[in-house]
Amino acid sequence: MIDALTFEINKTQHSKLPQLDFDNIPFGKIYSDHMFVAEYNNGQWNDLRIEPYADLSISPANATLHYAQSIFEGLKAYKNKDGEILVFRPQANSRRLNVSAERMCIPQIPEELFMSAMTELLKLDSAWIPNKEDTSLYIRPLVFANDPYVGIRPSDTYKFLIFTCPVGSYYSAPVSVKIETHYTRAVGGGVGYAKTAGNYAASLYPAVQAQKEGYDQLIWTDGQTHQYIEEAGTMNLLFLIGDTLITAPTGDSILNGITRDCVLTLARDWGVKVEEQRLSVNELVSALESGELKEAFGAGTAATIAQIERISCHGKDYHLPSDRPLSNKLFDTLDKIKLGEIEDKWGWVYRV
Questions:
Q1: Residue 229, domain member (yes or no)
Q2: Would you tell me which of 49, 219, 221, 298 could form a disulfide with 226, CB atoms 3.0–4.6 Å apart?
Q3: pTM for this structure?
């Protein structure tokens, strides 16, 4: 439940916008002037407000610091050639946030609250939305437990934030990945399908080890047998083997990616054969060795379409073809839909 959607807006007196170099925007290091905040207590969301972006003050006993009861989302806003603000599939992010909330014993965020808060924040900080190639305004909704209590139970109070940051490309070139067959990201019955902090914390150590070996990301395998491909650390994975686009089916150990859904929708619309099925490590290696693997790429909000140029398995590197027509077409089409340059027949774009 929420009170009537009335937002208190406190504008910053000292905008940081003049310090932003729109020609050199790193990913995730510069934050816009304002953030949305709401508090959950007594069974409902209260105190809806937009205020200057600033550090938070929390108790050392804050439940999230100890037990990671937190969830988040990631989505992007763009400006078209007419200066309109376009957001890509925010309602899908709102729904997925609540899927994560249910799994993590966090109160639901009404879609009306999510959409209204995001819209008002984007209107206020519209000047922060870049309009150069490969740039966007990244939007980060975040919900976390706020009880100052070190007992293990779901919190009674929560904080819901939305903040934004102008970003450039997450990956500026095709990536190299390593198939991970020892460490585990998620298992059946776990929280792998939720966007919750602990999933990402668990992946850091093996990812760092892979980066020391010269790889950008890991390809995670199933936690029980390590025989089947699941996803990468920042994206779902898709493989064009022969004439078939294959991706792992979503489940309780794989995030239900919104960009992944877009890719499958577009591919099917173009007549590409699509299969959501388990792909074993052995099948992938066989396709690499035979040349049947034509393309491999990741799909995610941050990366959009991240093409893969090298896959390592059991110490052996396999290099993929440099010709990548399908993933190039997918990237170009999604980019043009997001910017309103071509028809959006699926209603993916939300105009602020």
A1: yes
A2: 221
A3: 0.94
Same domain? 96 vs 130? yes
- Residue 337: name the closest of 88, 133, 119 by CA: 88
Question: Please, what is the Cα angle at 71 between 25 and 202, to 5 degrees?
Answer: 85
Tell me the per-residue pLDDT of 211-235, one tens digit each, with 9 for 90 and over.
Answer: 999 999 999 999 999 999 999 988 9
Alpha-carbon span 66 to 209, nearest angstrom: 25
Q: Determine the structural domain holding residue 41 and report its residue range.
A: 8-167
Residue 170's pLDDT is what? 80
The last residue of a domain, from among 167, 197, 229? 167
Q: Is residue 149 part of a domain?
A: yes
Closest CA to 327 of 260, 282, 279, 281: 260
Residue 29, CB-side half-sphere exposure with 13 Å CA sphere: 10
Q: Are strands 217-221 and 175-180 parallel, antiparallel or unpaired?
A: parallel
pLDDT at position 273 over 90: yes
122 vs 137: CA distance, rounded Å = 9
